[in-house]
Amino acid sequence: MIMNDRDFIYYVTRQNGKCQIMEANPRDPYIENHECVMELKAEKCLAFSLDTNDNFFFMDECFIVYKLSRGENNR
Q1: Partners of 59 in the β-ladder
Q2: Is the separation of the CB atoms in 20 and 10 below 8 Å?
Q3: SS3 letters across 14-68
Q4: Is 7 helix (H, G, I), strand (E, B) or coil?
Q5: CA distance 24 to 10
Q6: What is the per-residue pLDDT for 64?
Q7: What's the pTM value of the predicted model, to 2 decimals?
Q8: Cα–Cα nearest to 23, from 53, 47, 56
Q9: Any long-range contacts for 1-10 (C-beta under 8 Å, 24+ apart)?
Q10: Which residues contact 24 (CB under 8 A, 6 or more apart)?
Q11: Res 1: pLDDT
Q12: To pair with 45 at 20 to 30 A between CA atoms, which of 1, 18, 57, 71?
């Protein structure tokens, strides 16, 4: 789990051969309100990181590193 500057929590889940990056508001206790912000076809997540500009860095099981950026208007 990683927290950004705006106090949102990000974590990775795996479902049906895909890894999903989930966003959660810590003030909202209901898991139904967590939102999938990105999805990758990968079996495992070896590393996950976030920088200050909401860019995600994701390493899959083949040691390929992906840089994922959120759109400015999808929050």
Answers
A1: 47, 65
A2: no
A3: EECCEEEEEEECCCCCCHHHCEEEEEEECCCEEEEEECCCCEEEEEECCCCEEEE
A4: coil
A5: 6
A6: 93
A7: 0.81
A8: 56
A9: 2/48, 2/49, 2/50, 4/50, 4/52, 4/54, 5/52, 10/37, 10/48, 10/50, 10/56
A10: 8, 9, 10, 11, 31, 33, 34, 35
A11: 87
A12: 71
* 62: its two tokens: 């083949």
Distance CA 12, CA 68 (A): 13
Separation in Å, CA 15 to CA 4, 33, 51, 72: 24, 17, 25, 27
Q: What is the mean predicted confidence (pLDDT) over 50-61?
A: 89
Q: What is the tens place of the pLDDT at every residue in 7-39? A: 889 999 999 989 999 999 988 888 888 999 889
| Mean confidence (pLDDT) of the chain | 88
| pLDDT for residue 53 | 81
Which one-letter amino acid corresponds to residue 66? Y
